[in-house]
Amino acid sequence: MSNFLWGVASSAFQIEGHVKNDMTQWEEEGRFKKEGKNPIYGLGANHWQLWEQDFNLLKELNVNAYRFSVEWARIEPEPGVFDEKAIRQYDKMINRLLELNITPMLTLHHFTHPLWFHSYSPWISKDAIHVYYRFAKKIIRRFSEKVPYWISFNEPLVWSLAAYGDGQFPPGEKDPQLFMQALHNMLEAHNEVYLLLKSYNPYAQMGIAKHFIIFKEHRSWFLPDKGVANRLNIFFNQLLPQAFLSNRLQFRFWPFLNYNKEIPLNNNIDFWGINYYYRLHTRFRFNLKQPVKLLHKNPQTDMGWEIYPKGLKKIIGMLENTNKNIFITENGIATNDEGLRETFLKNHISVVKNALQRNNKIKGYFYWSFLDNYEWLEGLSKRFGLVYVDYDNHYKRTLKRSAQLFADLRIFE
Question: What CATH number matches the domain at 5-213+325-408, 3.20.20.80, 1.10.3720.10, 3.10.180.10, 3.40.50.2000?
């Protein structure tokens, strides 16, 4: 199992600080203030300044891989204008990982955009494909020989829903057709940068980190609940893998959504990344405006999520028919209860070990997250990290009790 990637994950914006992008702009405009919440970004976990000491902590976690992202707004602050100083720092970071014998897995797009993006080339426009390609080319050309694993997009379906479905992320639209249009363009952009990466390094691999959820009917005796669970499973979990297999992006959920368009993906993806956290229960309601209610039964985490390790096995099984490699690119828990985090780790990693016995396509596991960080729509209060960040004491880092368990659970040897 020496080629199995055992690592932790992060995203640039959530930990780095020292940047202005579409998310910080929305915070300044008060657009994230709702339901009594007022998430404050501040400097994230100040990783942009403290990355060297953070990377030393990676060794203490006994990992052989690290999934992270680059911050687009930092790299391209103006359209077509690139900040070479920022790129050089990412270069230093990658070089240091390689010195530590830690394999980098690099995410190009993890939810955030430069300040100019949504007015210049929004994802509902085909212009976005070219603009994203320009940014990706700058990074791929620089790092294609150093980075063996790439993720084009983190959770493109989730981002599209948040930006154009329920309007919680910028640009804040609420239109199902626009949501599908944005998703369509993001998938086309993936295809373009996939081919670009192969032109620079045919041995490098590129995939998508996809959020997966287990949907279960709220009332087993009520068939509409089960029908909704099935439709949501097809939409949320199977829409993207099927698009790659069929060259068609399609879904119908009358009367809200009817989308069916050809998309030339040609199965151009080397692996699927599984981001898995919880199970949701579906309740059908006789209400045209909101016919579906999603429930977390028995919430156990500080996010109010239900812990359901068996769901990871189901998701792995769901992806087997794609015949692609599989990485668990995110799996974690927000809690201040280290006993609960340790139980979470043991149960989910046990699922991975058992799956490995029958499926040689599973190539790695990344815990979310490396450090406590800024959580979307929640701020700094939700602690997913194996490393505690003391935001009030110069961002001091402390390994949590679960960090030692994680180091001992390694399954790459």
Answer: 3.20.20.80
